[in-house]
Amino acid sequence: MALRTYSFDELQVGMRETLLRTVMASTVNAFAEVSGDVNPVHLSDDYAASTRFGQRIAHGMFTASLISAVIGTRLPGPGAVYLSQTLRFLAPVKIGDVVAAVVEVAELVEKGRRVRLECQCLVDGKPVLEGEAWVMAPPSGKPKGAPQPATATA
Fold first, then answer.
1. Which domain of life is it from (predicted)?
2. Which domains are present in the chain?
3. Cβ neighbours of residue 59 under 8 Å, at least 6 residues apart?
């Protein structure tokens, strides 16, 4: 995936980026190992079958991490600094679901290069998570090590 960084001056209200991810059992297992959240509703088919979900579900914070991926790689991209995030979990995400994490610029505050982002995750077009993030966008002049636009050569 090619990374793109938008400086504060390049951002506009209404800009939007989306990341698609299929939730795999191996991903849920790996997230449990990394996070330490080994709740059996995420890891045990037998246990999860006895819950109101009827099957294993992904960690809510895994779904939320897809928003972080959009912010850190696409909008604003590398160099963005997370300041806060609100989350509302609306529906479970199951193994095999394709999650669309959507981030849209909602407000730009010049002081401190603050950006308010509306965030949501969708499965089959239905919201499963929504929230709002505040980030500090990179300044003009890309951060050291950030990807630069490709230039044509003759």
1. Bacteria
2. 9-136 (3.10.129.10)
3. 28, 31, 32, 35, 37, 39, 42
Show the beta-strand stretches assigned E in the chain.
Answer: 16-22, 81-89, 98-109, 114-123, 126-136
Q: Which residues, 6+ apart, have CB-to-CB distance to 137 below 8 Å?
A: 6, 7, 8, 11, 76, 79, 80, 113, 114, 115
- According to DSSP, the residues that pair with 97 across neighbouring strands are none
Q: What letter would DSSP give residue 106?
A: E
pLDDT tens for 63-104 read 999 999 999 999 999 999 999 999 999 999 999 999 999 999
pTM: 0.87
